[in-house]
Design goal:
The chain is α+β, with helices and mostly antiparallel strands and 179 residues long. It has six helices and six strands.
Length: 179
């Protein structure tokens, strides 16, 4: 994967402002996530904010959500595409609230390493529980996703004890494609 020098320089600046060591960019074991060339507007998220995904991801998301509803499982979009600056600002707010950076990086990827940068990741919620809580895995929506999401090209990125080292996130799913 070819990464432009300007993207690397942006990430270095964002990392430096968060106190992430310079070598993190080269030593992080997670894959660098690049922004797509094309994004489309989706439905607004649960909070009414505009969201974007790649065209193929949005098409598959829409079909999956519609099929789930027919099966009696209801869920909605909480978050989709985020650029590196948005990821930086998310982490910076947590630092300002007193959360140690090491702890933050167990639940939020550093700028450049979030699947949300790709326009293929979605955080999913349901009315049966609070947003972005582990209890999501006790809902009918989660059960439906476990059984059916793969046929729409989606997989859960951060199961328990995942190789990425992130906390368990039953709500975070990424479109890997079908076929």
């Amino acid at each position: 994967m070819r990464v432009s020098n300007s993207y690397k320089e942006l990430l270095k600046k964002l990392h430096a402002s968060l106190g992430i060591p310079e070598e993190y960019l080269e030593q992080c074991e997670q894959p660098l996530c690049l922004q797509p060339n094309k994004l489309v507007d989706t439905e607004p998220d649960y909070y009414g904010r505009p969201q974007r995904l790649t065209p193929q991801t949005f098409d598959s998301w829409s079909r999956m959500k519609k099929t789930a509803a027919k099966d009696g499982a209801f869920f909605f979009l909480i978050s989709a595409f985020r650029d590196p600056q948005y990821q930086h600002d998310l982490i910076a707010r947590k630092i300002e609230q007193g959360t140690p950076l090491k702890e933050i990086l167990q639940v939020n990827a550093a700028p450049g390493f979030s699947e949300h940068h790709t326009g293929r990741a979605v955080d999913i919620g349901t009315h049966d529980c609070e947003a972005l809580e582990e209890v999501f895995d006790k809902t009918a929506a989660f059960e439906w996703l476990q059984e059916n999401a793969k046929s729409f090209g989606f997989s859960m990125s951060y199961p328990p004890d995942n190789t990425a080292g992130f906390s368990y996130e039953p709500w975070h799913w990424c479109f890997k494609g079908t076929g």
